[in-house]
Amino acid sequence: MSPVHYVALAVILFVIGGVGVLVRRNAIVVFMCIELMLNACNLAFVAFARVHGNLNGQVIAFFVMVVAAAEVVVGLAILMAIYRARRSASVDDANLLKY
Amino acid sequence: MRHVLAGGTSTDFVAGETLYWILAVLAVSAALAMILVRRAVHCAIMLAIVMLCLATMYAMLGAPFLAFVQIIVYTGAVLMLFLFVIMLIGISSSDSIVETIKGQRMAAGLAAIGLFVLLAIGIGHASIGPAAPVTAANNVDNLSGIAQLIFTTYVFPFEVTGALLITAAVGAMVLAHRERAEPRPNQRELAARRLAAGHLAPSPPPGVYALADAADRPALLPDGRTAEDSVSSVLSPRDPNEAPRIVRPEKTPEITGGSGEREPEPASPVTPGRTEP
User: What integer pLDDT is reported at residue B224 of this predicted model?
Assistant: First the structure.
């Protein structure tokens, strides 16, 4: 299978993840959509590594995974703190800085 | 086995192509379902499907190490963390349908189309060549090749990654930690509180003394009253004196509240068999 197909799939998944971030309200689901976008980027990295025939892209994808894991840990901890304070995980309810 | 997936002979090529299309359709439909279903748990399951599809694709692209890291770290650890937080926040947490900002969905759709066109044009103009011939780097020597790169060329980012992980762990501990505002009540104070509240024994679980021992029958108290709060808040309580029926109720109780994200509003979320403070 040509790597351009994989890149196209990565684009589709990235756009779907972006729509999810824009549309969904539940903060956990927003995080999941961000994970989907990161995964799409990883797929593109691995596909480009396949094009070039070396491993640099795979190493970058590996680093992306590590950063994503750290982001999820901190993000979910923030989410827990917000939920404790406001009893809600909706991104609409965290509007104290609005006015 | 692995170079078969990466495409060797013509039959392997056909097999790889078929597998690609199956996985691509599965991944895209699961991703679409993920942003369409309302409940967060279903979103997590759909995301797991996408991640497993991507792991298989990594294997097809000559990255067996990343395929296993994807399954172990992403599907195993990160998604379990998501599920853990979903369970902490409430299994019934789902999205609201009302738009807070007028026309937000429409604007999001337009932005998505714009982003898609932008990326598609960019990729269409780029000349992405065919796959490089299968070498040892993306075949048997993948693991040692990645290790060599990480510990030579990318050794400084690798060290920074370690610092990042430690910072993330400490940050999560600080954020999730809750200071106790008052000292923990000891047993004597708890007993005095219970005595003052008027009921010494724990609250009855559902079904106690009712005609049916079901989770949606509120308990009958010794004085004949019903303990409404003995039924879990996600169930709709039935009459405790009603004779048990064999048929299932024709309408399943609505679990998600109309207000969206929150759990359905009970005055006090009572888990059965637990004393109220």
Answer: 77
Q: A12, A43, A58: which to substitute to probe chain B, counting the most B Cβ within 10 Å?
A: A58
| Domains in chain A with CATH codes | 3-86 (1.10.287.3510)
Predicted confidence at residue B26, as pLDDT, reads: 95
For A95, the closest chain B residue by CA position comes to B100
Chain A environment of B178 (Cβ under 8 Å): 84
Q: Using H for helix, E for strand and C for coil, what is the string for chain B?
A: CHHHHCCCCHHHHHHHHHHHHHHHHHHHHHHHHHHHCCEHHHHHHHHHHHHHHHHHHHHHCCCHHHHHHHHHHHHHHHHHHHHHHHHHHCCCCECCCCCCCCCHHHHHHHHHHHHHHHHHHHHHHCCCCCCCCCCCCCCCCHHHHHHHHHHCCCHHHHHHHHHHHHHHHHHHHHHHCCCCCCCCCCHHHHHHHHHHHCCCCCCCCCCCCCCCCCCCCCEECCCCCEEHHHCCCCCCCCCCCCCCCCCCCCCCCCCCCCCCCCCCCCCCCCCCCCCCC
Q: Which residues of chain A register pLDDT less than 50? A: none
Provide, as residue numbers in chain A, all residues whose Cβ is less than 8 Å from the Cβ of B96.
25, 90, 92
Give pTM, 2 decimals. Answer: 0.73
Nearest neighbour of A79 by CB, restricted to B51, B85, B154: B85
* ipTM, 2 dp: 0.92
- Shortest distance between the Cα of B172 and any Cα of chain A, in A, equals 5
Residues of chain B with pLDDT under 70: 1-11, 91-97, 136-140, 240-241, 243-277
Mark yes or no for CB contact B89/A89 under 8 Å: yes
Q: What is the pLDDT of residue B274?
A: 44
Check CB contact of A53 with chain B, cutoff 8 Å.
yes
